[in-house]
Every structure is written in C-alpha cells, then in structure tokens.
C-alpha cells in the first residue's frame, strides 16, 4: 500500500508532496515520545494511521483463507446437525436444498437493497462532498455538519429513525402511493453511505497536491475548470477503492434491515428455522448465509485490489 | 508608443517597493525592478531570500502587502476577482521547480488544455501549435506519453511548452532546474536559452550561475528580502560591489 502510493506518483510533481506528507505522519508519532523503546511502535502506529486515512477507513481485506474457514464451519455444522438428527428426519442438506429458493430470493433482495442504497447514497454523497469543499463558508459548514452527523450515527439507529419517521404512504394528486418497508430501509442505509461518500470525495480532492491548483491557476484556468478538468479526474482513481470498500460494508449491513422487518435473507432464514423447528439446523443455516455473503464480497475485494494495483502504475 | 519611447521604453514589468509577509515573517522588504520587453533577467540569491515569492507575486498567485506591480497594463496589486487575475495570467506564464504537469493527461494534452479551454481557440490550430512546441523542446516523439512515463527533464520541457502555448508576454521560471540531475539540466537550459535569444521576456530564478551569466541582460542578487545588488552579469559576477554579493558568489562559483 505504501509502496503502491509512492509508485503512484513516480516522476511527478506530487511525489515530493506525498513523500513529505508521509514523512510528516512518520515524524508525528515518534516526536510524541522520547523513549527509544517506543519509537518502532510509534512509527508503526503512524504508518497504520496513514494507511487507514488513505484508504478512507481501516483496510478490509478478504482472503481465500476466509472462504476456506467458512466452508469448514459450514461442513462441520452440517456434520454435527446430521449426527443430532433423529430417526426419520430428512438430512440437513436435503432440508437446506428445500429452502434454498427462499433463501436465495432473500439474498437477492439484500443485493437489491445494497445496490439501491449505494447508488442513491453515492449521488447524494457526491453533492455533499462537493459542498464540503465549497468556497462559501456557510455551505461548507452545513455540509460538514451533515456529513459528520450521519457518518458518526450508528447505522441501526438511522434505520430505526427512517422506519418510524417516514410515512407508510404518501398522497400525490389524490393517488395513494404506499412506501413499503424496504424502501424506507434502503433510504435509512443510504444516509450513512452518503456521508461516507462525501468524506471520500473531500479526502480525495484534498489529497491532490496544491501544486496542481497553482499550476492550473498560472495557466489561467478558473476554479470551476480546475476542479472539473484537473482535480476531479485525478480523484476518481483515488476514490474507487474506498468506495468499493464501502460497498462491501454496506452489503454486509443490509442484514440490519431484518431487525426492522424487511423480508431479506436473515428474516427468511429465521422463518425457515422456526418452520422446521429443529435447533440443530441453526448453525448450518447461518453458516450457509455467511458463505453466500463471502461468495458475493470476495470478488469485489479482489477487484478492488486489482484496481488499486492498476492505478498504482500511474499514468 | 508615446513620447517617452524615444528615451527609455516603458518597461513591460515594473515592480516598485513590494513588501510581502507570511504571518510575522517578512519575505519581501521593498523590492523594485524593471524588465523591458524582450529582456531576460535572472534573480539569484540564497534560499529563503524571497526569489520565488517575488515571481509568484508577479502573476498574482501570492497577494502583496504593499507596493505596486505593473505588468503591461495590469496593476497586479489591484486585481481582486478571479476574473481579473485570469486576464493577467493569460499574459504571464509560469514554469515551476516541480514541473506540476497534469498526470492524467498526455504531454500533448497538457500543452493543449489551456489554449483550448481558457483562450477558447480552435482545437485543430492549437494541436498544430502544440506539436510544433513539443518539437521545439525536442519532445515531438513523446506527444502521447503521460508525465509519469517521462524523465524529470522531459517533464520540465513539456511544462515549458505548456506555458509557451498560451503565447504569453512574460515567462516566469521558478528554479526550473533545481529538481533535475546535471545531465538533463543541459537540455532544459538550452530550451530557455533559445527562448531568450528569440526575444521572449523571461524572468528566471536560478542557481545556475554560468547560465545566468550567459543569458541574462541584468542579474539581481537578493538576500533577506531585498535586492542587494544588480547589474549586467559581467559586472555583478566579476566585480561585485557589495561584500554580501562577494561572499555569496565565492560560495557558489
């Protein structure tokens, strides 16, 4: 990651800016202590902090090992449940197979919610992030407040607020349009996504060295042109990896909507389990849900890594 | 031109008693100089003597505290809005120590961007001119290369071509060879020398004394925010009048 970022700016003006910033981070922590014993730890902490800041959050990395562990858990859980099964009961896998269409339908619903929350949240977040770097102080202040509010509020609390504050139907021109629970839940999840995207945008814009602004200014570009033609195009590749990270987190958070009664995979798994009324099925069924999420999130994590590597070879 | 043209022509750039502070640090303490059209001047001096700040004041990147800077008809200290500053910067181009090319654009696009989008000139004409400029700085073959694929010296020559593409009245060069290795400095200096010989008005901040002696019509030695001494290179380098100048030159020559 460090070296990738260094390579990112190989041969360009930004290299020194990045290097000096990296140096500043390094010098920050060691300067806080005079004890030689603490220096390596302090350096490492500073490096981790720098890495987290660059990624827009702590690194989230799935490896194939995680998948293997999940499959093992699933297999063991199946085995245990099978051993506990009474005479005449269908096998664990047969039961799972029976419920598979229901569970998959629930999972697709999870993905649909994540896609909709991500797209609305991203659109709103781009606007909010742009507002955070506005030249108007009031706009900047309001945008920063909104961002920090939704970024630091627990996702579940936001979800509950949306469920209970939004009406269950609206009347437009005499027509009654119902607002189903899942729409409200999607909105509730889109709020923290918006705030996080706003931070990603702000961080990316501010990570572009000021020299780029200066050189654009000296070529008589105005602020709008500088932003849209010079700064933002350079930001996109910096925003993509943290944005995809955020999407993975959001996908995993869609199960929160089961708490507010949306019929997604967790809800449906619960219903299946209570219909079967076999406590032994609990572990294999939930392990299966974990495997599903892994199968979806792992390619995304891989793709993120590939994008990072691709953009590390800078052009 | 008016009546005074018969005596001394009106200087293209006129700096009068300019003061500039960053916080409590006064970087420029009353600097004055005149640059005639077609003249190349060099500013030399130790680090932190305000050389780069002076250049940045001239194209309005850094606002001054007092004094006046006039470039052609622009009273730089009075330019308040972005719009007014942009009008000035169309006439005054700057080349930076760290090149500052746009890394997401090819060399050719870097050169073409400002004329196309700021001057709103015809894209095809700009393209022809940009290719000619790249050829002039010896990089015709690198038109489609991205800055990351070019060496420091090549990047700096693209940056010069980019600045020239605006067809400025004045070129400001801010220690353009300071980040380069001795091998590539040669090519960059050759480019600047050619410009100066063609009659482009150039203001250079430089640490290359031999180069300054060769291209400059006037050399200014600055230290501690003031111009200690100025004059033709032969006089300033061979017979410096001030002790401070002598001390500095004995260090660097």
Name a few traits of the molecule:
heterodimer; A: 315 residues; mainly alpha; MetI-like fold; two-stranded antiparallel sheet; 2 strands; disordered N terminus; B: 253 residues; alpha/beta; 9 helices; 10 strands
Walk me through this protein's architecture:
The complex is a heterodimer of chains A (315) and B (253). With 315 residues, chain A is mostly helical. In chain A, α10 (223-253) runs antiparallel to α12 (282-312). Chain A is globular and about 85 Å long. In chain A, 77% of the residues lie in helices and 3% in strands. Chain A has one domain: Orthogonal Bundle (MetI-like fold), CATH 1.10.3720.10. Chain A has 12 helices and 2 strands. In chain A, a hairpin with a 2-residue loop joins β1 (169-172) and β2. Mean pLDDT of chain A is 83; it is low at 1-31. Chain B is of the alpha/beta class. Chain B is 37% helix and 24% strand. Chain B has 9 helices and 10 strands. In chain B, α3 (107-117) crosses α4 and α5 (152-164) runs parallel beside α6. The radius of gyration of chain B is 18 Å and the shape is globular. Chain B starts with 12 loop residues before the first strand and ends with a helix. The interface between A and B is medium-sized, with 26 and 34 residues.
């Amino acid at each position: 990651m460090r070296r990738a970022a260094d390579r990112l700016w190989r041969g360009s003006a930004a290299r020194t800016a990045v290097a000096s910033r990296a140096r500043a981070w390094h010098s920050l922590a060691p300067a806080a202590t005079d004890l030689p014993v603490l220096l390596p730890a302090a350096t490492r902490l500073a490096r981790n902090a720098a890495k987290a800041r660059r990624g827009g959050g702590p690194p989230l990395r799935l490896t194939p090992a995680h998948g293997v562990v999940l499959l093992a858990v699933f297999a063991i859980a199946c085995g245990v449940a099978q051993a506990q099964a009474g005479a005449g009961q269908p096998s664990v896998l047969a039961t799972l197979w029976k419920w598979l269409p229901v569970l998959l339908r629930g999972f697709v619903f999870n993905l649909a919610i994540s896609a909709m929350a991500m797209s609305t949240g991203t659109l709103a977040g781009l606007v909010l992030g742009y507002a955070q770097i506005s030249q108007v102080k009031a706009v900047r202040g309001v945008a920063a407040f909104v961002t920090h509010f939704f970024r630091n509020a627990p996702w579940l609390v936001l979800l509950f607020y949306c469920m209970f504050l939004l009406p269950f139907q609206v009347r437009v021109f005499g027509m009654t349009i119902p607002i189903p629970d899942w729409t409200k839940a999607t909105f509730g999840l889109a709020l923290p996504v918006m705030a996080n995207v706003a931070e990603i945008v702000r961080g990316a814009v501010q990570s572009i060295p000021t020299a780029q602004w200066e050189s654009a200014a000296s070529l008589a570009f105005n602020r709008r042109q500088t932003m849209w033609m010079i700064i933002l195009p350079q930001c996109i590749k910096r925003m993509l990896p943290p944005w995809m990270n955020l999407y993975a987190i959001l996908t995993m958070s869609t199960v929160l909507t089961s708490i507010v009664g949306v019929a997604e995979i967790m809800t449906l798994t619960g219903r299946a389990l209570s219909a079967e009324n076999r406590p032994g099925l609990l572990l294999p069924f939930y392990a299966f849900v974990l495997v599903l999420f892994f199968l979806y999130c792992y390619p995304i994590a891989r793709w993120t890594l590939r994008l990072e590597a691709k953009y590390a070879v800078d052009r | 031109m008016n009546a005074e043209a018969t005596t001394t022509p009106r200087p293209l750039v006129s700096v009068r008693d300019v003061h500039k502070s960053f916080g409590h640090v006064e970087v420029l303490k009353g600097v004055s100089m005149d640059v005639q059209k077609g003249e190349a001047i060099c500013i030399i001096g130790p680090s932190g003597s305000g050389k780069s700040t002076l250049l940045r004041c001239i194209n309005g990147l850094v606002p001054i505290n007092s004094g006046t800077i006039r470039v052609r008809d622009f009273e730089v200290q009075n330019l308040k809005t972005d719009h007014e500053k942009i009008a000035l910067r169309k006439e005054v181009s700057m080349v930076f120590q760290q090149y500052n090319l746009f890394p997401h654009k090819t060399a050719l696009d870097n050169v073409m961007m400002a004329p196309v989008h700021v001057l709103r000139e015809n894209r095809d004409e700009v393209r022809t001119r940009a290719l000619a400029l790249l050829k002039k700085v010896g990089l015709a073959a690198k038109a489609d290369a991205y800055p990351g694929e070019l060496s420091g010296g090549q990047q700096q020559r693209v940056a010069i071509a980019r600045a020239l593409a605006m067809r400025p009245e004045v070129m400001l060069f801010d220690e353009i060879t300071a980040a380069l290795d001795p091998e590539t400095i040669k090519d960059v200096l050759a480019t600047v020398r050619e410009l100066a010989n063609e009659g482009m008005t150039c203001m250079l901040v430089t640490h290359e004394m031999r180069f300054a002696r060769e291209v400059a019509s006037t050399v200014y030695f600055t230290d501690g925010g003031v111009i200690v001494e100025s004059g033709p290179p032969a006089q300033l380098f061979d017979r410096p009048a001030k002790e401070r100048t002598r001390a500095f030159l004995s260090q660097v020559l």
